[in-house]
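Hi U.,

Before I forget, here's the chain from the pilot set. I'm dumping it here mostly so it's searchable later in email.
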Amino acid sequence: MATKIIHFMVNGRVERAEFGSDCSSEDIKDLFRAAAEVSSHHILKLYKANGCVVNISPMLEPNNQDSYYRLEVVTSDIQSITMPSDVDNMERRVCHLETKVLEEAGKTSEAINDLQSQVESFKRKLESVKHLSWIGIFRDESTKQMTKCKGPQLNVKEEHRQVCRKFVNMSFLQVTEEVREYLKTPIFDNWQWEEAEMLVLLQVMFTDLDFLTAFQIKDDILQNFLFEVYCHYNNIPFHNFQHCFCVTQMMYGLIWLTDLKSKLCSMDLLIMLTSALCHDLDHPGYNNVYQINARTELALRYNDISPLENHHCAVAFGILAKEESNILKHLTTEQYKQFRSGMIKCILATDMARHNEILNKFKSILSIFDYRNKEHKEVLMKIMVKVSDISNEARPMAVAEPWLDCLLQEFFNQSDTEKLKGLPVTPFMDRDKVSKPSSQTSFIRFVLLPLFTELTKLFPCLEQHIVEPARRALEYYSDLEKATQQGEKACKP
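Structure:
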């Protein structure tokens, strides 16, 4: 298993941490807390050498002692967190019982020690819950070491079973209003949540948009559907379940920000949210250009026409064909046809080869846009899915930048494979020609901003939510690109 070595300064000294690729963000934070000699109710901030905040996650870039990160410890106000009365009562009973045992036997029994330990563990979990939500209660408290973090190696099926158990255990609980409101914003930080928690939040999205009532969807059927979707995303650097969640969460946020609930019908909203959820199902980590050049089974099956997007659709409707995960069970024949047609169109629209075609169509109808016009609505739905799909740079830099690292890793994996197989090398994926800042400046300037800007002409309220963050990201990567170029010139003889 690959390991990463991270150097960071804390309390005036440079520390070294080593962790495996299977570590979670919480595992890594616990490593940092151990080095800083603080407890779980302390908040951590990590900075790069240039002063930029970096997200604490498994995507942290390895470094050396000369380019160490700087770890800052911020203490949270745990005094403001009130323990539930049943926990306090339990603790009082334990203390009383322990006193009696000490009086009678002169020592604490093993059972009392075990019970007291459980009370303390539960209190620690309550104190460290993220966003003061119930979700963190289910995080496992395990012993971690500073030098290494190696969890047990699980096969995919066992990993899925564990996620399913956690999801089912949490699914009946009430999500706080704070989390619900946070979920509606583009600043939502996906890196703070585990996969089972994301499934719960997806369930919240379907519930709060009234889909369960409108389409007679039972809770267990929705849960089965969401879990099946999770199982059909592959463990690859970028196009994974976390990406699916981010795209769906952005779509959910845009629906609320633009008040689409009052402009489109429930079926249109269901199509858009489900399309976002399923848009990259079973993505292999290699794009359409690779599929066609390598003459893969997908390219042959779909005659080189958007092979991946067609495959994502087919997998989605395969899940929906199962009785236990069919959230469309109570739709009429006409409703099902409308849903299927709309979802296929939305997912096929995420093929970047069709980007200009769809954007130009949207531009042509903006001045006369009418929500009662079926064609206008369909183009808008495609645009909303497209915006959600490539929306990372609308998020805070600490959330967006790790996603760029993941994307470049997947790109470089593809170009390496293309070189090994003697296939044409995709230029923007070549690790020998592409740098992190250069990859983003072109993408933001020529793809992202033109798309975002057109959407804000219909929804001016989105200017501050997606366009301004994208402009800040462009400025950041442009400055980084200039600094890199200047550094390269200075190094030349």
